[in-house]
Every structure is written in structure tokens, then in C-alpha cells.
Write a structure and sequence with these properties.
mainly beta
Length: 284
């Protein structure tokens, strides 16, 4: 029972400067002063060349005192820029482990995610969007891939024309409580963006956008399990100043939640740390 509870708990979330030389290598010639005046705005145009990314999310669970209770790795390939605005998911795998230092294996392939296609929109918060997903707890983690990628893209493109260098920007049109496809509710306190500078990723000159959302409330009910708590998440996205494509992204979060299981007398507290990265597979 304890193992099952731990695995379920890893899915209860909705939704930096790199120093590694393999990511930040390369040189761009010419003056860049003009790029500090204004970021290019809007979503990239569909030029017939789909962009493919590998998303990797690692969830680590601990109790209130910091003792390790389990970890999960979720990976998937995401591509966008297809005809009529569709995006696709392929090669989604989920692996669960009980030992902190145990290396992740490939995990179990989520066949229901293979060639999954949709047009990103608010409809993906509707229960019908996931009607073909299995009832197993792992499908919550698969939903998170979709929701996290939507958030990263929205923060990268929707507000870029409002950002000024090193000035905090508060998003006002994402606030209050919303329904999470009939499994619970999520309430944002405040989301802040900041354009912090220019960097180089994949040999591309990129604008760097950071974001953070603190003290968000979450309440879920899945089968016999109920949970409520708070989540803090933050991240950084590197966007090509030329193509406006996302070149790299990171997201981190910490969720502290109280969990109640039907048939068990006592409630318990779980802290989940999520580390997520989005890497370009095709770097043309």
C-alpha cells in the first residue's frame, strides 16, 4: 500500500542560468545592443519544419522530515509546427523507484500517448480531452506533460511584447481557481515573469525569460484518495531571437500536500520536488 500511495502522490501537480558547456557553447558575432530594447513577440510561424523536443520530469517524494519515500521519471517527445497547428506526443515512458540512488530504467511505455495530437487550448482542462486515457495513476503524470508544455509555451510567447528588461511583469489573466479536467482544482496566487537578459543556447542568440508562481493552492480527489496542499513553481526559458522557437527550458516545483486514503485512519504529509527540462532534439 505504501508503494502505491507514493507513486500516486508523484502525479499530484499541474503544472536559472545554465553552466554546462555542451548547452551554452557557441559564438554569435555582431552587436547585440538592439536586442535589449524589445523581445520579438508572438508565437513562431509554421514554416513547414516541425520542432521536436524531449521533455524529462523527475519527481522525488519525501516525508515532512525529509526522508525519501520514492521517485518517478517521466519522459516524452513533443513536436509542434505541424499542419493546422497540431502538436504531437510520442515515446512517453514512466518509471518508478523506491531507492534514492537507483538509476532509472527505461520504464513502461504509455501507449495511449503514442501519436497523441491536439491543438493547445483551454479545452485541455476539460475531462473529455482525456477520455481515452486509462484509469491508472500514471495517467496523471501524462497529463502533467501536456499541461507543463502548455504553460512553458504560454510564458514564452503570450506576454513577450509586454516584457521590459529586468522589470517584473505580473500576469493578470491567469488568476483564481480553475478546474483540472474534473480531478480537482488549482488556484494561482500570482504569476510573475521577468526578461532577465540575452544568452546563447544551441548556438542561437536567445532571450531569457524567468517566471515564478508562489503559494498556489491545489485540491484533488482521485478514487479513494483526497489531497490538498500548496505548490510553488518557477523556471527559465531560452527563446531564439531570430526564430522565436524555444531552445531550452527548465521548470522546478515543490508541493506540500496532506493526503487522505479511504480505509486508512491517519492522514499523512508528502513533499514532492519536481525537476523538469525541455531540450531540442532537432537543432536546425
Amino acid at each position: 500500500m505504501k508503494k502505491t500511495i507514493t507513486v500516486i502522490a508523484t502525479g499530484l501537480m499541474t503544472i536559472s542560468v545554465l553552466t554546462s558547456s555542451d548547452i551554452c557553447s557557441g559564438q554569435i558575432s555582431g552587436k547585440i545592443e538592439k536586442y535589449f530594447e524589445k523581445l520579438p513577440s508572438g508565437e513562431p510561424e509554421n514554416d513547414g519544419s516541425p520542432q521536436t523536443y524531449r521533455m524529462t520530469a523527475i519527481y522525488t517524494n519525501r516525508d515532512l522530515y525529509g526522508n525519501f519515500t520514492g521517485k518517478t521519471k517521466v519522459i516524452g517527445d513533443y513536436s509542434r509546427g505541424h499542419e493546422n497547428g497540431y502538436v504531437f506526443w510520442n515515446n512517453v515512458y514512466i518509471a518508478n523507484y523506491d531507492k534514492l540512488n537507483e538509476m532509472f530504467a527505461e520504464g513502461k511505455k504509455q501507449d495511449y500517448m503514442e501519436n497523441l495530437k491536439y491543438i493547445p487550448s483551454s479545452e485541455l482542462l476539460d475531462e473529455l480531452a482525456f477520455r481515452d486515457f486509462p484509469s491508472s495513476p500514471d495517467n496523471i503524470l501524462a497529463r502533467n506533460l501536456i499541461w507543463d508544455m502548455m504553460s512553458i509555451e504560454k510564458f514564452a510567447w503570450t506576454y513577450s511584447d509586454s516584457l521590459k528588461l529586468n522589470r517584473k511583469y505580473v500576469i493578470h489573466d491567469i488568476a483564481g481557481e480553475f478546474n483540472m479536467a474534473e480531478i480537482g482544482t488549482y488556484e494561482h496566487s500570482s504569476i510573475q515573469l521577468c526578461w532577465t537578459g540575452i544568452s546563447i543556447i544551441n548556438n542561437k542568440l536567445c532571450g531569457v525569460i524567468e517566471y515564478r508562481a508562489i503559494d498556489n493552492k491545489i485540491e484533488l480527489s482521485i478514487g479513494t484518495m483526497k489531497t490538498r496542499g500548496t505548490e510553488q513553481y518557477w523556471g527559465t526559458t531560452w527563446i531564439s531571437l531570430d526564430s522565436r522557437q524555444i531552445e531550452y527550458a527548465e521548470m522546478f516545483s515543490v508541493t506540500i500536500k496532506e493526503i487522505e486514503i479511504g480505509g486508512l485512519k491517519d492522514k499523512f504529509i508528502v513533499k514532492t520536488i519536481r525537476e523538469l527540462q525541455v531540450e531540442r532534439i532537432n537543432k536546425k
